């Protein structure tokens, strides 16, 4: 079990000094350059996608599907090609504790990969997520216990 | 040449999911042939799993549970895992949808 996962499993909320910090913030190792880099990337735009290839020419069917879904919703998004940067490719998997690419972030929060985007699109939930301007509340995803 | 051993990852995935989720439905499709990998590879899978373990859990948590159960496989050669995770009450016996086709990015 990775250290990251252990940290996530430890507790939902950790108290440090006078502050309560949600463990998901602890799980991002901000002292690690790639993690702080990714942290900036996901907060740089409302919708951020980590994919294989570029939106005009995806190099993976799953990445292509995610781009198609976002285009259907006329969503503007930042895209980062993990095939161009091995550090980013590995770093993003650790950052979100998610083993596969593509990965979609909205308001700095990890939403999911291709399967989840497809299901959110079909259920109509994606519209609400994309329209929401607030960071998602913790009710959406709590650390696994 | 690989025929005897070629389902070793698939069998391992099946056993782990069976033990962890006691699923009502468990369908596993090796989709590796759709990708730019050697014949008989075990790199791309699709799993359809129906279990009471998913009751009350949002989609992303269901997927995380499956990913965690298969974390060894995902670290060691399984490259893509498409997941359909439902509760028995959500499950309708539908044909499994095929994953999108490869666009050449594997291993690059």
From TrEMBL, chain A:
Gene3D superfamilies: Glutaredoxin (3.40.30.10). CDD domains: GRX_PICOT_like (cd03028). GO terms for cellular component: mitochondrial matrix. InterPro entries: Glutaredoxin, GRX_PICOT-like, Monothiol_GRX-rel, Thioredoxin-like_sf. It holds the Pfam family Glutaredoxin. Residues 47-111 form the Glutaredoxin domain. PROSITE patterns: GLUTAREDOXIN_2. One of its GO terms (molecular function) is 2 iron, 2 sulfur cluster binding. Keywords: 2Fe-2S, Iron, Iron-sulfur, Metal-binding, Redox-active center. This is Glutaredoxin-related protein 5, mitochondrial.
Automatic annotation (TrEMBL), chain B:
Gene3D superfamilies: BolA-like (3.30.300.90). InterPro entries: BolA, BolA-like_sf, BolA/IbaG_stress_morph_reg. One of its GO terms (cellular component) is iron-sulfur cluster assembly complex. Belongs to the BolA/IbaG family. This is BolA-like protein 1. The lineage of its organism: Eukaryota, Metazoa, Ecdysozoa, Arthropoda, Hexapoda.
